[in-house]
Amino acid sequence: MCLSDINRTGNAGRTWWLCDWLTQSPAPAALNPAAAERNPGAGASLPRRRSAGWKLAEEAVCREDLTRLCPKHSWNNNLAVLECLQDKKEVNQNISSLFQLLWNYKLNLTTDPKFESVAVEVCKTTISEIKECAAEELGKGYLVSCLVDHRSNISDYQCNQYITKMTSIVFSDYQLICGFTEKCRDDINALRCGSISTGEKDIHSQGEVIACLEKGLVREAEEQPGAHAIKDECKKAIMRVAELSSDDFHLDRYLYFACREDRERFCENTLAGEGRVYKCLFNHKFEEAMSERCREALTTRQKLIAQDYKVSYSLARACKSDLRKYRCSVDTNMPRAREARLSYLLLCLESAVHRGRVVSGECQGEMMDYRRMLMEDFSLSPEIVLHCRSEIEGHCSGLHRKGRTLHCLMRVGRGDMGAIDPNCQRALQTLIQEADPGADYRIDRALNEACESVIQTACKHIRNGDPMILSCLMEHLYTEKMVEDCEHRLLELQYFIARDWKLDPILYKKCQGDAARLCHTHGWNETSEMMPPGAIFSCLYRHAYRSVEQGRRLSRDCKVEVQRILHQRALDVKLDPELQRRCMTDLGKWCSEKTEAGQELECLQDHLEDLVSDCRDVVGNLTELESEDIQIEALLMRACEPVIQAHCHEVADNQIDTGDLMECLVQNKHQKEMNEKCAVGVTHFQLIQIKDFRFSYKFKTACKEDVLKLCPNIKKKVDVVICLSTTVRNDTLQEVKEQRVSVKCRKQLRVEEVEMSEDIRLEPELYDSCKQDITKLCQNVAFGNAQVIECLKENKRHLSSRCHQRIFKLQEVEMVDPELDYQLMRVCKHMIRNVLQCLKQNKNSELMDPKCKQMITKRQITQNTDYRLNPVLRKACKADIPKFCQSILNKATADSELEGQVISCLKLKYADQRLSSDCEDQIRVILQESALDYRLDPQLQLHCTQEISRLCPEEAAAQEQTGQVEECLKVNLLKIKQEGCKKEVLNMLKESKADIFVDPVLHTACALDIKHHCAAIPPGRGRQMSCLMEALQDKRVRLQPECKKRLQDRIDMWSYAAKAAPAEGFSDLAAQVLTSPSKNYILTVIGTGVALLFLMGLLCGRFTKRVTQELKDR
């Protein structure tokens, strides 16, 4: 019989219908010449027996073992006895004659012509149906081989059982397999797999020879050091033997004896045949109770399956029609060719599944088992054993079981444990594609066990085995539901899935059409792609955010999946292949200490200007993408969930985000629902946006054309905003008919300006100029809410020159456009209408919010320090300022602050009644406001700070200022020591003569008297003050006691002021007279004096004229 070419399948049943022939089979002594030649002395060892009716049970050497090990009903059947004795390990190993007897019997049986004759008789119908077998020449043993090769097509039960039983006899000894010894003799000797001579070893050791050859074949495939190169014809024979033994583990003698006890332990109820015992043992391979010898034998068997899928009976049978259907056929002349490898079968059929083709459920089940097998044991992949040897020895030794070594290698591949050899990286990537765990997480046993609790709690709503389980786990990464071990296993797997878009089955299903249309891809398992797998996803997401006008957009379903992947990749920088490849150096240089979730990308964004060009480009593109769809930032979205639900849920619910969500988060950054993590994340994104205007999607979309036209070559957002704002301001001032900046850009520009005013860090030039001042003066003040800017404003006198100039410029802008004053707008948002002027007018209203009132006062103090900060005053007094205060302007520089000098100058001219009406109105308002609160008079505060602290501490400490400090200074005028302060108080007295409203204490005391006696007199120019003075002098008028007292005090003060500050010239004298409450009296006296002088002149003139005439007459 020649079985070397057999490709058999079958079921090991008992062939009781052969009893008659086996009972009368020839005795072992009747050896043919060839057998005798191969086994010298074999026949001599046994006496001659009659050939008919001879039974093995009658031999003395068998009787003891037969009685002890085999059931009595089998003793009359030679084949049953043979099967029993050769499968029992307990056979007496010391009786070599018994082994010789059994071996000679089997050899004689397989060479007996009756062996083939019985086949012709039993399989008569089958032979006629199979043309190849009918054509075989009888007498050479080929008929039985042909029948075994076509056993899957044999429907006759008896024929099937006959073939099965005969093969089990042959497989008990490799020397009984026709041609095996000749083909593998040299390799057996070279590998020291045993002796060719019969009888030197027991019957059970013969299986070890084949096992040794199989191990040699595996070592050669793995290119292990010192591996022997087995001849091709022997390789073919070894693989055929493995295929022949694929359905019944009894036929793999080495594995059978190595795993008999384990079979009883784990697979006691598993019926033999159709590869069921193999599969059961494979499933328990890593159990603690599994013997090491059995585990080793199973691993060798699995490695052979990896080299040729036909070594797995169940897989070959289940997938036979699908392999033919999808042209995954095997070249029969090359049994170990690429097409025969398990990996090729899996990739070919997985490709069909991913393309939506129908693959039988039985075949998919078998594929699932072997994909899980590949993920459990890295050693089944020769490429990994070959290329990852140093990584395994250095990092992953001792972790072999249940996929732990593979996950350790994946962790090394991620870069978490040092560098990895590129060949090892490619081998890992190939294995992940072959096993395809993305389609079913259960294929990855290490992941399945680590994440079981998370799946049961967080993903219980998803069907078990659904590809969305992995997405669900990613969504819960870094949440309280995630456990550490699951987190590590998940990131290790996702690292490799992220490098080939096809390994995410949902993404591939939804996007394969778009990928073919836009990125020119081919099949799932196509090797001639125009671009690498990692680049396909980059191509997809570039098209995901195209506008309708740009065209070539992704389908809706594909875009949803692309967004899902982007959300996942944002969780870990290593899940973005392009980012990690281009930024490896920068990550090590700038971000080596950033190990928390999401920190590495933030670090790269922070160092954007310092990155190498390639890295800067990819980080910039990703940041630009985030600006359009901030939901990509999964960690930020989780942190901001409360504020989103409270204030931004409508925007967040939109499937297409166009930057609205981030804008909403910025606008609500200081709501009570905002937590620290969210606020930090939003602020960080704002800080990143200032690096490039493209990072602000709404601003970029609204102003892109304006930037190209008006601000070319400007990249930084803050510079672009300044450029466009300057253009808008200039066009407004020049009153051009058509603004150069578009309406939509102006609208978005306003949003950007307001956002920038919220945090000093969003204005880099201001921040850089004031860094030292912030450290010195505002160290404990938090950024955001414009608090640092407010702190700098309040400490303006102590700022460095550079910072002072910047703050002044900022205040100038804010006073022109109060909406850019973040603190003002925030504190007064419930009270404010449009401008600061409205707030000032309603400051003392009963409805005014106290905090808002306090903020208005702060802005008034700022505004009064320089006329340029008061746009209304500046416009009203544009002619008066250069006319009366030019000397002050000449001394000042463009960036210096005037500390209220110009306003003080205008106040004095107001007292002299020399201002224009518009300017007079504005100064009157300032005088009235500053009379109630001394802080609104910069010059007074500058020169009188110490005097106020010394003379009026209680009045200054009052929360509500109503002119008490000014009144205190006036009363204590004689006690004031500093000349500068005394001068300011005298100026106050001078100003109060011009209008009673400037003197709030006096006005309050005389309010009723003004109403009764001066109601018809309009305010201003000292008219009401003069009315009161006349009433005071008129004894017929009775003034209120408090008013009378206050008036008398004012007269005394003015009298002292006149003495302390006499007129410096005629103009000052005239001004003092005109502004005096007694100007009518003074003017009457002056007029009377002038009239008397005139009359005297007339009289004296006539007298001198007569004297002159008399002299002439003489």
UniProtKB/TrEMBL annotation:
Molecular function per GO: fibroblast growth factor binding
Cys-rich GLG repeat residue numbers: 229-289, 358-417, 419-481, 553-612, 673-732, 740-800, 847-914, 976-1036
Membrane is among the record's keywords: yes
Presence of the UniProt keyword Nucleotide-binding in the record: no
Keywords tagged on the record: Glycoprotein, Membrane, Repeat, Sialic acid, Signal, Transmembrane, Transmembrane helix
Transmembrane segments: 1081-1104
Gene Ontology annotations for the cellular component aspect, listed alphabetically: Golgi membrane
Pfam families, A to Z: Cys_rich_FGFR
Recorded topology in the membrane: Single-pass type I membrane protein
Localization, UniProt: Golgi outpost; Membrane
Protein name: Golgi apparatus protein 1
Encoding gene per record: GLG1
